[in-house]
Automatic annotation (TrEMBL):
It comes from the Bacteria. Residues 394-419 are annotated as: Disordered. Residues 426-568 form the MutL C-terminal dimerisation domain. GO terms for cellular component: mismatch repair complex. Signal peptide: none annotated. It holds the Pfam family HATPase_c_3. It comes from Petrimonas mucosa. This is DNA mismatch repair protein MutL. Belongs to the DNA mismatch repair MutL/HexB family. This protein is involved in the repair of mismatches in DNA. It is required for dam-dependent methyl-directed DNA mismatch repair. May act as a 'molecular matchmaker', a protein that promotes the formation of a stable complex between two or more DNA-binding proteins in an ATP-dependent manner without itself being part of a final effector complex. PANTHER family: DNA MISMATCH REPAIR PROTEIN MLH, PMS, MUTL (PTHR10073), DNA MISMATCH REPAIR PROTEIN MLH1 (PTHR10073:SF12). GO terms for biological process: mismatch repair. Keywords: DNA damage, DNA repair.
Amino acid sequence: MTDIIHLLPDSIANQIAAGEVIQRPASVVKELVENSLDAGARQIRIVLKDAGRTLIQVIDDGKGMSPADAQMAFERHATSKIKSVDDLFALHTRGFRGEALASIAAIAQVELKTRRPEDEMGTWLKIAATKVESQEPIACGVGTTISVKNIFFNVPARRKFLKSNETERRNIFTEIERIALVNPDIEFIVIENDLQTLHLPPANLRQRIVQMQGKNINQQLIEINEDTTLAKIHGYISTPQYARKGRANQFFFVNNRYIRHPFFHKAVMTAYEPLISASESPNYFIYFEVEPDTIDVNIHPTKTEVKFENERALWQILMVTVKESLGKHNAIPSIDFDTADAPEIPIFDPSKSPAMPKVNINPNYNPFQSSYGSGGRVAKPLLDWEELYRGFEKEGRESPVSPDSETPLFPENSLQEPDSQLVSPKHYQYKQKYILTSVKSGLMIIDQHRSHLRILFERFLSLIRGRKGVSQRMLFPERIELTPSEASSLSEIKEEMEALGFELSDLGNNSFAIQGIPSELHHVDAVALVRSMIEENMDGGGNAMEQLQERLALTMANFTAIPAGKPLSEEEMSQMVNQLFACQSPNSTPDGKAIITVISEEEIESKLK
């Protein structure tokens, strides 16, 4: 019987390793840029074509490599950072496993040009699918230029699963953003399809945050700074009034490496707890500096998950640091005793007994006959009840109006009317949250917010798919500033938003003008709505067009549906119930939550025995 276990060829082993390290074009950009930083580069240029599918080129002015090092760099587990096991626990650099270049060369066509300052000539190396095709001297500048062409050209199954160009572009900018935020003194330039789309000149940390997030963030930043024996914590957090209900800009970095850490996120949210609602999130950019031997960054192939030796102690330090900074910058309300309107408090005199308080009343006052003012008797105005009631009947037939505004609760033509009255015409509102109505089988309870959510979802989805959205031009267009990754996300959904009735114009530098909104919307915060749709798309990822349309419709519905706690008139409740039962799926919301429940007559009778 022959043996069945054998060693894999290097080419196949490298492709398997590439699956862990190189998942998409953004992974290539991350690994190459980190290598440039480790080489001491002060300027890094990133050239992209077709969102990295056709070309990813990284050009740096770092220290370069010798001819021997240039070829050795593409061998598996080749690294300049580790010489012994102890070095694993004293790492200050980013790439250290020696897998990145070997993995990239296994699934793409790679060209490398590099030269050290002390060399007269550089090295030009060509590799495809781990095979060195050529190596020769070349005249080039100091530093390294590496070009990765046709990613996954030899692994068609992997290439097939790449997302749209807009999605892959957004992922690339997400990686660039994380790297740029920990290297504010480095200049970054991004060129896409021969057009420069991002330029980040050297800056300090606060300026780099503003460069990446837009100038509006500058006014909300609060500096944090704490130096302890366990760690140095510094960075910026946002004031509570700028907390957002959707995705916030939240970053943790340890020793200049981006990490995800839900445990530390909870520490930040604990500090904000008394200041913002549970559904809101603050922006934060928090940097840890710890001894390398107290963390393990090697627990995940992408090195974004980190294990800390003193995690619980750091949790407490972080929470207190954030809370203290909020207090120092008056984010936490304080009592001011030096106000001009404060009442004068008399000095206590023990020789005098306090006088009994007196209440002045007028025994002759009769509210049904007359009223008294400061000048004596004043005739009470007569109320013309018929005049006061006049017009109520007419108003009742008009579009229902919410009690605290003049905005129609259900916009005109927002939904189709049902063919017939499907339920009993009498409805009751319970705790301004549920609609109760009698049906043959018992008592029906309808969640008013979820009901309106379902109605609006089907309406907006119909508009998107039918391309029937009507735009309402804004008298004063509103400007929205986005990060590069958010701008990429907007380009993914722009066509579908226009189908709803949005009008957006590109102002350049990741800024857009909102010139029109769907005519169904009234008095909405257009900037917040657009940002919410972008954030939902970023959270949902690049899915099929049908899923994208449903996600946008649900975001719009969530943003505009009436909330729990909204008083409704009998006509509003009747209209909502009829429109709900005209929906295709009236029993549940698009995300699967129940809208309707029925308490049977038997249940009611059993509880009253």
